Amino acid sequence: MDQMLTQMLVEKLGVPKEVYDNLQKGDLSTSISSLFPDPQMAMLVNSMLGQITTENETSEQRVDPERALANARQTIRELREDLEDADTMLHYFAEMFGVCPFCLGWGKQCLHCKGRGVLEDTFPNEEELLAWVKPALKKLGLRVVKLGSV
């Protein structure tokens, strides 16, 4: 913890010298429990001090550039996989609902469907659509009825 910040905190809180010395030695729990008899307040202060200590320790650690690069590459691989999965899911929904797979029917300026929301040769996949929608409709007390069958 920064020495100046610590000194200001000690002065503002009216911390006795012996408690301050314990804090400097790293004995947080004894110092905090004597300063804050309320267990919730003691836990909160202990947590805050622990975060400050962790942040300082982290910033002092040396970063290995090769390990950082390997971690970055791994993160990029994982993000690409997530993007591919999202793209696959979007195309699945587009096929199921019979909408344009590029704008999902929302793009008024879409070059693929020309703003119509559907491609000329796409139709909803009735079986898949009903499989997704029926459980939700059932919970709402609703059902799907084909036109002309009522």
Task: Count the beta strands.
Answer: 0
Number of domains: 2
Helix content range of the residues, please? 55-70%
Order of helices and strands: HHHHHH
- Biggest sheet features: none
Task: Quote the beta fraction.
Answer: under 5%
Number of helices: 6
Low-confidence parts lasting 5 or more residues at pLDDT below 50? Answer: none
If you average the pLDDT, what whole number results?
A: 78
Rg (CA only): 30 Å
The 3D shape can be described as elongated
Distance, first to last CA: 75 Å
Q: Structural class, please?
A: mainly alpha
Labels describing this entry:
single chain, 150 residues, mainly alpha, 2 domains, 6 helices, elongated
Concise overview:
The chain has helices spanning 3-13, 17-25, 28-35, 39-60, 65-97, 126-139.
Explain this structure to me?
65% of the residues lie in helices and 0% in strands. It is elongated. Helix 3 (28-35) packs antiparallel against helix 4 (39-60). The model has no long low-confidence stretch (mean pLDDT 78). It has 150 residues and is an all-alpha fold. It has 2 domains: 3-60, no CATH class; 66-124.
List the helices and strands and how they pair.
Elements lengths: L2 H11 L3 H9 L2 H8 L3 H22 L4 H33 L28 H14 L11
Helix pairs in contact: 2-3, 3-4
